[in-house]
Amino acid sequence: MRYLPHTERSRALMLEEVGAASIEELFNDAGAPVGLAPSKLPNHKSELEVDRYLRKLSERNTVAANAAFFVGCGAYRHHVPASVDHLIQRSEFLTSYTPYQPEISQGTLQYLFEFQTQVANLLGSEIANASLYDGSTGCGEAVLMAHRITRRKKAVLSGNLHPHYASVVKTISHMADYRVKEATIDAGLANTDAILSMIDEETSCVVVQTPDVFGTLYDLNAIAEAAHEKGALLIAVVTEIVSLGAIKAPGDMGADIVVAEGQSIGNGLNFGGPYLGLFACREKYIRQMPGRVCGQTTDADGKRGFVLTLSTREQHIRREKATSNICTNSGLCCLSFNIHMTLLGETGLRKLAHVNHTKAVQLSERLSEIDGVQVLNSSFFNEFTVELSKPAAPVVEALAANNILAGVPASRLWPEAKSLENTLILAATETVVDEDIDQLCAGLKEQLDAE
Amino acid sequence: MLNNKGRVTQPPEGAPQADATLSIQSQSHSGHKGLLMDEPLLFEIGSVEKTGVDFPGISDEEAGEESKLLAGLYRDEEIGLPGLSEPEAVRHYVRLSQKNYAIDSGFYPLGSCTMKHNPRLNEKMARLPGFLDIHPLQPQSTVSGALALMEELSHWLVELTGMDSIALSPKAGAHGELCGMMAIKAALEAANSERNIVLVPESAHGTNPATAALLGFKVASIPADKDGTVRASAVQDAIEKNGAETIAAIMLTNPNTCGLFEREIKEIADAVHEAGGYFYCDGANFNAIMGRVRPGDLGVDAMHFNLHKTFSTPHGGGGPGSGPVVLSKRLTPFAPVPFLKRDGDALTLVEDADETNKAFGRLTAFHGQMGMYVRALSYILSHGLDGLAAASGDAVLNANYIRTKLKDLLNQPFGDQACMHEVLFDESSLSGTGVTTLDLAKRLIDEGFHPMTIYFPLVAKGAMLIEPTESESTESIDLFIHTMRALISEAHAGEEERFHQAPIHTPLRRLDETGAARKPVLKWVEEA
User: Fold this and answer.
1) Which of A298, A325, B227, B349, CA to CA, is 20 to 30 A from B219?
2) Is the CA virtual torsion A310, A314, A318, A323 positive or negative?
3) CA-closest candidate to residue A92, choices B419, B240, B95
4) Which residues are CB-neighbours of A116 under 8 A, at least 6 positions away?
5) Set of chain A residues whose Cβ sits within 8 Å of the Cβ of B86
């Protein structure tokens, strides 16, 4: 077996030193039951065989690069510079553990410190952690954190929060015996009033996504003010962080905690994971923040260095009194983000955001020329919502057969909501070319005209 | 895994400075030392004007134009994101990488963490466009290969454990624990049960009690016996003391964090089941038994994997992980969404909890760590059942070989007995030398090894938990043993000062972790 250095001879020599006749005897001595091994599973395969087999499976999927692609809703297709993937595959990054021994982990620790700075600045917050699993789990953690800070138990969710994010919050809240109230869904509208009316003295936090799941942008200032007036916190959620190269950061609009999905920068679509949870907040909440944090310090010679810090919040020290049970971050995905963001720089990020917005505007203008398509948004960044003259899911399915991935039918996310049956959410990033838009428009027209 | 006391890293008061000659020899004018390059922070070398990505045809001015569709929310202030050109960026990160230890460069015997070789085939497979470049919300009809891959991985993990079903979506081990315990809570709720006590042995990973507490359970600690394992009688005592009707579950790691197989695991499972509770098994140490023992046969109701440990998806400096959970028949109906459903030839992913299922809810957006599923399946198919059993066998052999070769110099806190895939020593044999477990760990760094896990588990004083994994050759392990023996002799020979100064051959020396926590500096701020 190509991954095992031992030969039968070296095994025999080592067994002799250990004083066991066989490996089975060793297991027996250690108290592990013998004779309960699984069966009915195939034996090992060569690299070539595995390659061939998995490649075949992969070829059954429609690849975004080979389609006219407009799918978003929390995961976005962006171009990642070639150097990013090359650098993250450096052995020293790819095959190292969590940097618990800082003297031999300064590479990881320094990029985490750079990452935290980039995230805090991008989200407009005072501090950021070294990442969580993804945006949705970060959203759940933010709600729990708000409950700890305010000592209240009720979260108010915007109706236009990504339904998967809302589900994550509702699941953990139900399990941990906390309450959740949801505002109404308003496709294409920033229904701030509906949210404001739900904040009361029992509210621990208000969770608002911007751009929301339908693509609408929010001025968070009024919501922040109203939340603070009642002693509640504002948690802002961003699922498309490229937007922050063009629009105001949630932290600068009064959000106390900002969680975001960082996948757009540096990370591929990967069918949903691994992604990258960005988490930022006000400095005064530092000791209530979940997840790993990297901090600056000095070594015995007085030189600057970095360590994981504030571990007294964490499970391995606090056990059942920990702020969360989290024991992992998204290390390598942070590195991808860090490198891609460094390559972009502020200038590049602003241009990237500009291209995204321009493409989306172009797409919306083209779509609104089609009979049976109505654009619902009055504001958007690179994603918006349209109302079709017929149910969206079958249309999307039919277009997919022609290599057009037309977006996400709202019914995929809200299967129960009949009012959203004809609603379609589309995203356009820098990867979209004019021919893609032509194809989509032609295909859509054909589908909508069909009886 | 980690240490918790290993954080006090200042040399003791009055300790002499490092050898002056050495210090002078190691100075340089550039800040670099041979192959070891000093590297400033991005914020000290980059600038907001610089970029390493081209957008032909778009001027800075154009990019700065406000669009009316942005609802007056245009971000006009500077963000604070310096950039670098591509050659500068490549050099910056290559230099940073050179300050890291890695499994590819040396022996990494970090107990409880399973730092095994990461085959590059896995990386190549995960980057196939058909896996990398597909969206979680494109129509299911366009991703049948992805669903088939998830089904095949599920089949392997279920068969290897002898369980009934699997929840793939948890994003890491602790997330898997949360998933398993939520399934248990959902099952209790469905039975209108008020059970709220979770039994956790003292040697458990910190995530176990943290997870139980997060879900509102009360944690009752169970002591280990003097052989380091949990007695069924101790579990029985805890059940009686709290009342059988209060027991929700037990969370047990097997093999446990002392590297020992829980010999009475079946009796423990029976006792908990008889009381009406569930058995959660922490599968962090599955590498010791894969292909040889099926947890389902031992009475387990839920167990998470750490795909990044057992199935070699890279640790990546601290993630991303992946923590699928296998479930017993009793818990299967409560598995979270999404889950796979096969109906004849049709394979679908059920994405919503509704009246047609009893799913307890959703743990994450989308479908989990697909990139990790591909890597893990690539590893599993490469090994096959015979290879997986050979791997766990070699892992156990290597640990016992180290145990045998060091046991005359280091104390095994629970007596001289065969271990599984990792061996635990304590620091008692170093007493009187002035050298602690931490010092020994830091000296190992100078010798070119990543230290073992130290100060965990807490049940051993000055714990050293050594997990060689199956990836190490006899020669590599022999060098480690030789080095350990030499260092312990040095400690006994009164050379404690060398230990206190260590490490000296690293980019930085011991770091002040106490100071870092007292006044946290978490981001770069330009000095005024």
Assistant:
1) B227
2) positive
3) B95
4) A127, A128, A129, A130, A293, A294, B522, B523
5) 81, 83, 343
Q: Which of B4, B23, B60, B73 is the best residue to mutate to test the A interface, defined by the most A CB atoms within 10 Å of its own CB?
A: B73
Mean pLDDT lowest among A65-69, A322-326, B163-167: A322-326
List the domain boundaries for chain A.
64-78+346-449, 82-340
Of A45, A63, A353, Cβ closest to residue B133: A63
What ipTM does this complex have? 0.97
Q: What pLDDT, on the 0 to 100 scale, is given for residue A406?
A: 97
Across the range A216-235, mean pLDDT stands at: 98
Q: Which residues lie below 8 Å from residue B93, measured CB to CB, with a gap of 6+? A: A87, A90, A111, A335, A339
**B170 with B178: CB under 8 angstroms?**
yes
Low-confidence ranges of chain B (pLDDT < 70): 1-26
Q: Check if A424 contacts B (Cβ < 8 Å).
A: no
Instruction: Find the CB nearest B520 among A131, A286, A330.
Output: A286
Residue A259 pLDDT > 70, yes or no?
Answer: yes
Instruction: Answer for the pair A64, A405: CB distance below 8 angstroms, yes or no.
Output: yes
CA B454 to CA B389: how far, in whole Å?
A: 28
Contact criterion met (CB < 8 Å) for A311 and B4:
yes
CATH hierarchy code of domain B387-515: 3.90.1150.10
- Chain A CB contacts of B127 under 8 Å are 85
pLDDT of residue A62: 98
What is the C-alpha to C-alpha distance for residues A381 and A353, in angstroms, rounded to an integer? 8
Give residue B125's pLDDT.
98
Q: Cα(B460)–Cα(B159) distance, rounded to whole angstroms?
A: 35
Yes or no: say if A385 and A215 are a contact pair by the CB < 8 Å rule: yes
Is it the case that residue A364 has pLDDT exceeding 90?
Answer: yes
Phi then psi for residue B282, to 5 deg, are: -75, 115
Name which residue leads in pLDDT, B36 or A426.
A426
CATH number at A64-78+346-449: 3.90.1150.10
Q: Which residues contact B59 (CB under 8 A, 6 or more apart)?
A: none
**Rounded average pLDDT over A157-175:** 97
**Please, are residues A233 and A227 in contact by the beta-carbon 8 Å criterion?**
yes
**Alpha-carbon gap, residue A130 to B266, rounded angstroms:** 40
Report the pLDDT value the prediction gives residue A315, as an integer from 0 to 100: 67
Please state the φ and ψ torsions of residue B251, each to the nearest 5 degrees.
Answer: -115, 115
A407 conformational bin, left if phi > 0, alpha if psi -120 to 50, beta if neither:
left
For residue A401, is pLDDT > 60? yes
Q: What percent of chain A has pLDDT over 70?
A: 98
Question: What are the φ and ψ backbone dihedral angles of A408, each rounded to 5 degrees?
Answer: -110, 115
**Class of residue B493 by CB neighbours under 10 A (exposed 0-12, middle 13-18, buried 19+):** exposed
User: Mean pLDDT across the stretch A393-413?
Assistant: 98
**The two domains B124-380 and B387-515 share their CATH topology (first three levels equal):** no
- What's the pLDDT band for A124 if we cut at 50, 70, 90? very high
> What is the pLDDT at residue A36?
74
Two tokens at A64? 């975004």
What's CA A95's distance to the chain center, in Å?
23
Q: Looking at residue B83, what DSSP letter applies?
A: B
Candidates A36, A35, A54; CA nearest to A46 is A54
Hey, what are B142's tokens? 């366009």
CA dist B350 → A75, A372, B342 (Å): 19, 31, 10
The structural domains of chain B, with segments of one domain joined by +, span: 124-380, 387-515
| pLDDT attached to residue B8 | 41
- Residue B1: its pLDDT value, please? 38
Kindly state the average pLDDT of the residues A410-425: 97
Taking each helix axis as running N to C, give the angle between helix A163-176 and helix B173-190, from 0 to 180 degrees, rounded to the nearest 10.
60
**Cβ–Cβ under 8 Å, residues A161 and A207:** yes
The CATH class, in words, for A82-340 is: alpha beta
